[in-house]
Amino acid sequence: MSAIFLLGVLVYIVLQCADAITTYIAVESGGASERNRLEAYVMNKLGSFRGLMLIKTVAIMPFFFVTPTLPIVVVLYILIVVYLGVVLNNLNVIRSL
User: Fold this and answer.
1) Nearest partner of 6 among 95, 14, 48, judged by Cα
2) How far, CA to CA in Å, does 42 sit from each of 36, 55, 84?
3) Which of 42, 73, 81, 93 has minimal Cβ neighbours within 10 Å of its Cβ?
């Protein structure tokens, strides 16, 4: 279980970084805006880069403090699928700019 959890955390971190990078590129190009209201609010208050770093740190940190039980691993892998979709969508947006 712990190897599956650690692999999942690694993939999740990579996807969070990819989301931050692609979101930053799309938003800073001026042709797109952040659709997540909370993320948009934080980015508006702190600036795109600092806002994204704060949001992504908050998104990643809980996985360093939980015990890798089956429900936690399931949630982690659901988040991986969700963020894979987010990153692919961001890439689509960037391509259309």
Assistant:
1) 14
2) 10, 8, 22
3) 81
What string of pLDDT tens digits covers the 97 residues of the chain?
799 999 999 999 999 999 999 999 999 999 899 999 999 999 999 999 999 999 999 999 999 999 999 999 999 999 999 999 999 999 999 999 9
Structural domain boundaries of the chain? Answer: 2-96
Residues 20, 8: contact at Cβ < 8 Å?
no
Beta carbons within 10 angstroms of residue 68's beta carbon? 17
From residue 40, how far is each of 46, 64, 74 by CA, in Å? 10, 25, 28
